[in-house]
Design brief:
Layout lengths: L2 E4 L4 E4 L24 H9 L6 E2 L16 H13 L12 H12 L4 H4 L3 E7 H16 L5 E5 L3 H9 L4 E5 L1 E2 L4 E2 L1 H9 L6 E5 L12 H14 L2 E6 L13 H8 L4 E6 L11 E7 L3 H18 L6 H11 L3 H30 L7 H4 L4 E3 L4 H11 L1 E2 L5 E3 L8 H12 L1
Parallel strand pairs: 3-14, 5-6, 5-9, 9-10, 10-11
Antiparallel strand pairs: 1-2, 4-12, 7-8, 11-12, 13-15
Helix pairs in contact: 2-11, 2-12, 3-11, 5-6, 5-10, 7-8, 8-9, 12-15, 14-15
The chain binds (2S)-2-hydroxybutanedioic acid (LMR).
The site of (2S)-2-hydroxybutanedioic acid (LMR) has 6 residues, from loops.
Length: 422
């Protein structure tokens, strides 16, 4: 069939027959994107020209000067990596072997029996979001009927990622707005009633968005329920080191591995190494035995190949260098401690100023919640006022990133919050 370009009409025509292959209305059915609730706020903050603006929206650690730090340990690792760098072949689909091994030991502990038994497989992924996506695609293929249960509330993007994998996403009770704590009994009851092989998304530490974590005893109480219902935990560990410590924050992961559970872990180095733009993450799967682990790794490779083929080299090599170098590792651990303690200091200051300015209101949740985030209980309208009148950017759910506060702005942030609460 002969086709010719009809320049006058700006379209392709079949000779003799006037049918249109291209038209100015081709994408008319594509609806406008309302924007991501977190990333759009961060973009709006960037465009705000007011000098006193404060960004407590996105989950990024800023230092006391309001800057994203370049950690000295990571900088030193980068010098070495760049110095030693050679050709840039494709990495294997599952990523670099030194990165994968270092991640396993960081998550499961240097003496992990599960690692020694060959039951753990780890893939280097494009951020932990990449790990969630790869894990979600794998689950959809091998557990097609399984529903994904996420905490109410959870990170804004969890639902989108797993629904994007074709999964049905439902919630289990989690945050108690009356206490600013956890509805643990309700959570447990919901999991006891869950269908066999339901996937349960759990925040291993520093729950995003609430900052409300399970205690060690509560994690232990989950284990028999997971075994009884044959649930499959999917742990999200994006803030390791920001809660109680690097090893302490891996408590639930190590417990589940010791207890013989099969589960997924997506982890990230965006926050713990301040490597946001390098998209360094991993997905690990703990399997019942080594033979199943081999097949899981194989199918994960196929899943990665279908998505992005293989991960980039550079960031993963920085992480591997920091984690495996006898000088850089303790340096990094001290840097993480400093970031964690600065956040705790900001929590204390915010609590103290607000308690003084708004007497009779309980702000103790700022002290009990862990990690970067606190759920303030502020309404969407109050958050809008804070942004518009005071230049204080919070996510409209009321989530506040405490790591955006510093000694120069914490008082102003507290004053603004006090003003909208009165
Ligand atoms: C957040 O929750 O703010 C961070 O994890 C950044 C993001 O991608 O949403």
């Amino acid at each position: 069939m002969a086709l010719s370009v009809c320049a006058a009409k700006n379209c392709l025509q079949q000779q003799g027959d006037d049918f249109l292959l291209w038209s100015p209305s081709m994408f008319q059915h594509v609806e406008a994107y309302p924007g991501d609730p977190i990333l759009s706020l961060n973009e709006a903050f960037g465009k705000d020209t007011r000098p006193g603006k404060i960004n407590v929206s996105i989950g990024i650690y800023f230092d006391d000067n309001g800057k994203i730090p370049m950690l000295p340990s990571v900088r030193a690792a980068e010098h070495k990596v760049v110095n030693d760098a050679g050709a840039r072949p494709y990495l294997p689909m599952e990523g670099a072997a030194n990165f994968r091994s270092a991640v396993q030991h960081l998550l499961f502990g240097a003496d992990s029996a599960a690692i020694k038994e060959g039951r753990v497989v780890t893939m280097q992924t494009v951020g932990s979001s990449g790990g969630l996506k790869i894990g979600g695609d794998f689950i959809k293929r091998y557990f097609p009927q399984s529903v994904m249960l996420v905490s109410d509330p959870t990170w804004d993007n969890h639902r989108a990622v797993f629904e994007g994998c074709g999964m049905t996403v439902k919630t289990y009770p989690y945050y108690d707005s009356t206490t600013g704590g956890l509805k643990f009994e309700a959570m447990l009851e919901a999991l006891k009633a869950a269908d066999k092989h339901s996937i349960v998304l759990l925040h291993a530490c520093c729950h995003n968005p609430t900052g409300v974590d399970l205690s060690k005893e509560q994690w232990q109480a989950l284990v028999p329920v997971i075994k009884e219902r044959e649930l499959i935990p999917f742990m999200d560990l994006a803030y390791q080191g920001y809660g109680d410590g690097i090893d302490e924050d891996a408590f639930a992961i190590r417990l589940f591995a010791e207890q013989g559970l099969s589960f997924f872990v997506a982890n990230s180095f965006s926050k713990s190494m301040s490597l946001y733009g390098e998209r360094c993450g991993a997905l690990s799967v703990v399997c019942p035995d080594a033979a199943q682990a081999v097949n899981v790794l194989g199918q994960m490779k196929a899943t990665i190949r279908r998505n992005y083929s293989n991960p980039p080299i550079h960031g993963g090599q920085l992480v591997a260098q920091v984690l495996s170098d006898a000088t850089l590792r303790p340096m990094w651990e001290a840097e993480v401690k400093e970031m964690r303690e600065r956040i705790q200091l900001m929590r204390r200051k915010l609590h103290d100023v607000l308690s003084a300015k708004v007497p009779g209101r309980d702000f103790s949740y700022f002290l009990t919640q862990r990690g970067m985030f606190s759920y303030t209980g502020l309404s969407a309208e109050q958050c809008d006022r804070l942004r518009e009148e005071f230049g204080l950017y919070l996510v409209r759910s009321g989530r506040m990133c405490i790591a955006g506060l510093n000694s120069g702005n914490v008082e102003a942030a507290a004053n603004a919050i006090a003003a909208v609460l009165k």
